[in-house]
Amino acid sequence: MDINKFDWTEGLENKAIFSNDKVLIFKMKKSKYVTQNIPGPGCEMDDFEDKLLGCQCLACDRDCKCTAQYGNAYKDKKIDLTLLGSSVTPVFECNSNCSCPSQCQNRVVQHGISVQLQIFNTDNKGLGLQTLEKIQTGTFVCEYAGEIISLQEAQRRCNKQKDTDMNYILTVKEHCKNGILKTFVDPDKLGNIGRYINHSCSPNLSMVPIRVDTMVPKVCLFANRDIEPLEELSFVYGTLRPDQKTGTKCYCNSNGCTGFMPFDEELKSSFYFLE
Ligand SMILES: C[S@@+](CC[C@H](N)C(=O)[O-])C[C@H]1O[C@@H](n2cnc3c(N)ncnc32)[C@H](O)[C@@H]1O
């Protein structure tokens, strides 16, 4: 097979994603592409099946039920920069039960990928994802989507990993009234293009959990600054601890590099995200 003609999204996204000519065929993961989160072992099925109520707006304004409680997350389809990276406010987009049209300003991530992306070979982090076009600050790039699994299943999968294996399980921790809500996403075997995004201590993407039709958060990545063509896309895998002296060595090569990848004590893995 000619890898340069291989669409890594299996034709399932708005835009095909190819790799550059340096990516070797054996690097292709045997994973199945999914465009959004799917239920995996141990997940709460009600969270997937219970549909959120919709608004009755023809054009959503200040009285829209979807944004009345927490405010508008978007302006001109770009996310409010204050939500990038440090969001404490949940974001609900208008959904399939809403009366508003698909061009509603409160519908962004549900429309999928709009930027031309490419898989490439990094020097020492395996594969990575880069942009082929300029991306403006606040633009939605892609989700980090995969199987939603329970803590026990995440621990079981992490325990099975060898030290040299790449880890794809992301823990999202959202602070809410009743404590910390944890979501475990594993795109290793069933995942979208987000699985190829590497960690950086000075990233150009920020993660925001966003809900559309159900309470299962979509883990959404937005540009936190203007990004130039061919820049590698990256986000922070977890809280950076400059005093951390062990763990997986970080090769992000940025000025602010702490030397090691973030580490999740609960999973004993080097991948989590605390909001
Ligand atoms: C979600 S995957 C990212 C895509 C991966 N590079 C690939 O080839 O499929 C996470 C893994 O990539 C590698 N990785 C990501 N960021 C890294 C970094 N800054 N330094 C070293 N390794 C990194 C680690 O092996 C990590 O477990």
The average pLDDT value, as a whole number, equals 91
Percent of residues in beta strands: 25-35%
Low-confidence stretches: none
Number of strands: 17
Topology as a string of helices (H) and strands (E): EEEHHEEEEEEEHEEEEEEE
Tally of helical runs: 3
| CATH fold field value | Beta-clip-like
Q: Report the oligomer.
A: single chain
Overall SS class: mainly beta
- What would you call the shape? globular
EC number: 2.1.1.43
Organism: Mytilus galloprovincialis (Mediterranean mussel)
Domain SET: 115-238
Subcellular location: Chromosome
Task: Please provide a written account of the structure.
This protein has 275 residues and is mainly beta. It is built from 3 helices and 17 strands. The protein has helices at 45-49, 65-68, 151-160, and strands at residues 18-19, 32-33, 38-39, 74-75, 78-79, 91-92, 117-121, 127-131, 140-143, 146-149, 170-176, 179-191, 198-199, 205-211, 218-223, 234-235, 273-274. Strands 2, 3, 10, 11, 12 and 17 form a 6-stranded mixed sheet that branches. A 4-stranded mixed sheet has the order 6-14-15-9, with no helix packed on it. The longest helix is centred in the middle third of the chain and has 10 residues, at 151-160. The model has no long low-confidence stretch (mean pLDDT 91). It binds S-adenosylmethionine. Residues 125-128, 166-168, 195-196, 198-200, 250-252, 261 line the site of S-adenosylmethionine (SAM). It is found in: Chromosome. It is an enzyme of class 2 (transferase). Keywords: Chromosome, Metal-binding, Methyltransferase, S-adenosyl-L-methionine, Transferase, Zinc. Residues 53-112 form the Pre-SET domain.
